[in-house]
UniProtKB/TrEMBL annotation:
Purpose: Endonuclease that specifically degrades the RNA of RNA-DNA hybrids.
GO cellular component: cytoplasm; ribonuclease H2 complex
Name of the protein in its database record: Ribonuclease
InterPro entries xref list: RNase_HII, RNase_HII/HIII, RNase_HII/HIII_dom, RNaseH-like_sf, RNaseH_sf
First-listed, main subcellular location of the protein, grouped into a coarse class: cytoplasm
Annotated binding of a divalent metal cation, by residue: 25-26, 126
Keyword line: Cytoplasm, Endonuclease, Hydrolase, Manganese, Metal-binding, Nuclease
């Protein structure tokens, strides 16, 4: 199957209506353990005239071996980037949808801390639902776009940046809990992960409010 590279068609059109775009994409939504992370990538009109980095795709379409180099190119290409995090304990406390909103809001704040202004900015969000406006402390102009992580290069950048950051985090957690094999499954419902849960129970990094023992195997 031929994988079509993401383009800047939508970004260039939207940048005729706004000063800059803050593109967002989440990773870890369906995991059993570990945080939810949302990547942010900032694009302005000058940046949208630059060539899309080689190999940039939605993170799911980039091999694990290549993702770090692609993420590094993506971070150098955009004007600013960051990742917002919500822990497994917070997911248990507030539920997954609000957790996504909090992670997205924290991703936006991470680029604000780098000097990016949200005044005149448009938030381009992968998906069909605006989950960030309700929790962000200031008004945002949000545009959800289905398959933006596949089709829009700036969202692909946010996707791969977040994926590499979260995978590294899960690798660090694996050192303290090696039986769950998080270095391999990244906290998702692999067969080895569920077998370890049945044998050992839940760690402090599991989303204990979820019906973990009965979830389908994803890998």
């Amino acid at each position: 199957m031929t994988v079509v590279a993401p383009k800047l068609t939508l970004e260039r059109r939207l940048l005729g209506e706004c000063d800059l775009i803050i593109s967002l994409d989440e990773v870890g939504r369906g995991a059993l353990a570990g945080p939810v992370a949302v990547g942010a990538a900032v694009m302005d009109a000058a940046g949208a005239r630059r060539r899309v980095p080689e190999g940039l795709r939605d993170s799911k379409l980039v091999t694990e071996r290549r993702r770090p180099e692609v993420a590094a190119r993506a971070a150098s290409w955009v004007q600013a980037s960051g990742v917002g995090w919500v822990s497994a304990a917070e997911v248990d406390e507030v539920g997954i949808m609000r957790a996504l909103g909090l992670a997205a809001s924290r991703a936006v704040l991470s680029v604000v801390e780098q000097g990016v202004s949200t005044a005149g900015a448009l938030v381009l969000l992968d998906g069909n639902h605006d989950y960030v406006s309700a929790v962000h402390p200031a008004p945002l102009r949000v545009r959800p776009v289905i398959k933006a992580d596949r089709d829009c290069a700036s969202v692909s950048a946010a996707s791969v940046i977040a994926k590499v950051a979260r995978d590294a985090y899960m690798g660090d957690l694996h050192e303290g809990h090696p039986d769950y094999q998080w270095n391999r499954n990244k906290g998702y419902a692999s067969l080895e992960h569920r077998d370890a849960i049945r044998s050992l129970g839940l760690s402090p990094h599991h989303r204990s409010s979820w019906a973990i023992a009965d979830v389908p195997t994803l890998f």
